[in-house]
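Protein modeling request. Please complete all fields; requests missing the sequence field cannot be processed.
Requester role: graduate student
Desired output: 3D structure, token encoding
Chains: 1
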Amino acid sequence: MRSNMFRWLLTASLAGGTLLSVGTVSAQPGVRDHRRGHQPPPPPPGPAPVVSAEPREAPPPPRAERAGRRAGYVWVAGQWDWNNGKWEWQNGRWEKERAGKRWRERRWERKGDIWVKVDGDWMDDSPNVAPPAPREEKWQRRKGWVWVAGEWQWRNGQWDWQPGRWEKARKGKRWRSNRWENKGGAWVMVGGGWDDAPMYPTAAPPALQQESVRPRRGFVWVKGRWDWQDGDWQWTPGRWERERANYTWNDGRWEQQNGNWMWVDGSWAAAAPIPQYPTAAPPALQVENPGSKAGFIWVRGRWDWKAGKWDWTPGHWERQRANQVWIDGSWQQRNGQWSWVEGSWGAGATPPPSVTPPPSTTPPPGPTQAPPAPQAENFAPRAGFVWVRGHWGWSANKYEWIAGHWERARAKATWQDGRWEQRTQGNVSYWVWIEGSWR
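Delivered output (439 residues):
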């Protein structure tokens, strides 16, 4: 019994000593652990580096940026930002424009020994100076459209020109342009828009536009006119109307009635009785230079009385008749009116006897010496025109050079230059200038 108890106590004592020695060894520092695969723990981290939240040095100079222009947008310039203890460049960008606002750029300000960023933002903005004078714009009326004139707009702290544009016309409406008004030292834009147009104009129409037309046989030219359309004057070009027998055309006109201007349409009216005979002498004969034509004589042109007015009838050639001469017609006044006496052929005079006439004491009607050779003229062709050559003229008993000139070409007609011809009067020869003409 005692021996068993002793063995138990000895075993317990030995086991306790072993555990105590093991615990004591594990707690000692610097003792290497020889157990396989075990690593010592890492040392604790040192203090983190101190990074300044605000820069103490000025930002670098801004970088150059080419932004250009973009309608409806404002360019926000690039800027240096302070990130993680160093300067970093942030590129610029476009911001949508805001009415009545101006963009204030970001900036860095020095406060004490640090630099502080002031962010950009939108500020209320209105001009305190009058807008510049409007720019000149050239435009022509366009049927069915209204021209909205260009204007100055205040954008991002400065005046910016907005060019004019076309707006589709609206029936019974008139466009009212924007305008700037000074209110309390600030300039404020009063917006335009479409207003009801007055039915009748309250001011006289503009002066008629110039219209160049040539007479057209059998037609009457109806002049162009100003029409009142949607509160504005619109030009309507003239036109041709076929003539009506025994009627005359009376042009339309604008008349002021009760403070308004009213249009009175043109109309045809019965013509006054046309006098059968003229009561005044005919105009001077027109100049004709037909030249000469062997075996023919030239019957001069004449003024005819037609439809109550003078009308020119050009001359013509008649074949010569033996032993007869042509007697030109003429207008003669009889009983207070003018009548035309037709030309006719008359018996020719008896030829004079074949004797030598005495020397003439009457000076010849032209120079007795031939004209000089024509002078050289340098000219380039000109579309739609004919060059009339220069020639020598006889003035004050001497030849003088008359320079050539351009004449507008005529349809189905050819220009024949003038010329000097030699003629004889008695025993004296002289020179006569024959004018050029259209044929």
